[in-house]
């Protein structure tokens, strides 16, 4: 039995969900696993401040966030990243001393960088999991044993940044086992699920208004999570709607809603994207933010598994098109299913366990 330390960060939901999925997979095979927010290990205040700053920049100043992502590709930024990783070394050493893991798994580049620096001196094995369909250079930190990526293209990006190809394994993003391929759908009327995402008020309001503008019948499920203000807004919009709108609060049945729907309207976060592809449901992507979301959207649209909507009118147009062109909708579903990797979590776990058994 091995003990795994799974490190994440408070920036976005996907890194943490990927960590949870990895923990469940490893525990199910008889091992131990502990998830730790790298930023909260010494002070929860640091993690809260870092998250608040991140959320403010991403959601209120997305262009600034996009610029920061682009600047991270420049040489000085890479040097600063290495410097930051060296500064984080002491914190990583304290983590290793407290938990004494047999291996470290990181789902965010910050703890991965610190762990990889320590690994260079012969510490415990380190594995990185990239949770988007694009890799920025900050992920390419020499020292980790393996890097698990969403696609072959992401692996090639990391190779271009200097990571040895024998350390790159294209597995998909770790998702829950409930996200599995579904039978081909052909609902009458068209059935749509809207997911709010991390900052979903604007997304959901726009999506529901766009749906209300569609003349033909649509069945709508709106997943709003724990958000009373958003629920009140959607309830008001639903009273004006010609369609049947099912408003769903917090639920662990996301996969079930995907399974019974023809389309998903959402933000293209890495985990949400991976889950949708595993099920085989095509997406309407609404206003992807600069940075990883933008690249995830490009990946999906280039593979014909999604369409992008920059305005509410775009959503209405896509809904009208897909409701009347069943062949095109079926083609999008087939493309999504082709890209899906429903067994990614187990594949990553198996690779890690096999590698550990050889060292």
Tell me the distance between the termini: 15 Å
From the spread of the alpha carbons, the general shape counts as elongated
**Spans of at least 5 consecutive residues with low confidence:** none
Helix content: 40-55%
Count all strands and give the number.
Answer: 12
Helical element count?
15
> What's the overall average pLDDT, rounded?
86
Description:
The protein is α/β, with parallel strands linked by helices. Helix content is 50%, strand content 16%. The protein contains 15 helices and twelve strands. The strands form two sheets. Strands 2-1-3-4-5-6 form a six-stranded parallel β-sheet, with helices on both faces. The longest helix is centred in the N-terminal third of the chain and has 17 residues, at 44-60.
């Amino acid at each position: 039995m091995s003990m795994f330390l799974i490190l994440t960060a408070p920036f976005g939901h996907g890194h943490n969900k990927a960590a949870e999925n990895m923990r469940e997979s490893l525990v199910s095979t008889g091992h131990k696993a502990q998830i730790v927010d790298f930023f909260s290990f010494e002070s929860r205040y640091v993690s809260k401040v870092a998250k608040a700053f991140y959320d403010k920049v991403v959601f209120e100043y997305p262009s600034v966030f996009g610029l920061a992502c682009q600047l991270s590709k420049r040489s000085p930024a890479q040097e600063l990243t290495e410097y930051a990783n060296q500064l984080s070394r002491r914190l990583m050493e304290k983590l290793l001393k407290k938990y004494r893991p047999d291996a470290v798994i990181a789902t965010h580049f910050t703890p991965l960088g610190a762990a990889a620096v320590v690994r260079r001196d012969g510490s415990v094995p380190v594995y990185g999991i990239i949770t988007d369909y694009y890799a920025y250079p900050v992920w390419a930190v020499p020292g980790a044993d393996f890097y698990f990526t969403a696609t072959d293209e992401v692996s090639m990006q990391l190779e271009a940044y200097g990571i040895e190809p024998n350390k790159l394994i294209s597995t998909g993003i770790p998702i829950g086992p409930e996200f599995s391929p579904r039978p081909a759908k052909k609902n009458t009327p068209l059935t749509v699920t809207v997911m709010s995402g991390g900052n979903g008020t604007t997304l959901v309001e726009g999506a529901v208004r766009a749906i209300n503008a569609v003349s033909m019948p649509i069945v709508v499920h709106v997943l709003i999570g724990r958000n009373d203000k958003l629920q009140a807004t959607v309830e008001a919009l639903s009273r004006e709607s010609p369609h049947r709108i099912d408003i769903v609060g917090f639920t662990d049945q996301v996969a079930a809603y995907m399974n019974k729907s023809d389309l998903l309207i959402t933000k293209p976060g890495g985990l949400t994207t991976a889950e949708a592809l595993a099920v085989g449901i095509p997406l309407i992507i609404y206003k992807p933010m600069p940075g990883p979301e933008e690249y995830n959207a490009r990946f999906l649209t280039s593979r014909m598994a999604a369409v992008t909507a920059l305005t509410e009118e775009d959503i209405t147009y896509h809904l009208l098109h897909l409701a009347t062109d069943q062949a095109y909708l079926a083609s999008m579903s087939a493309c999504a299913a082709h890209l899906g990797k429903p067994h990614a979590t187990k594949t990553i776990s198996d690779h890690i366990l096999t590698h550990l058994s050889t060292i």
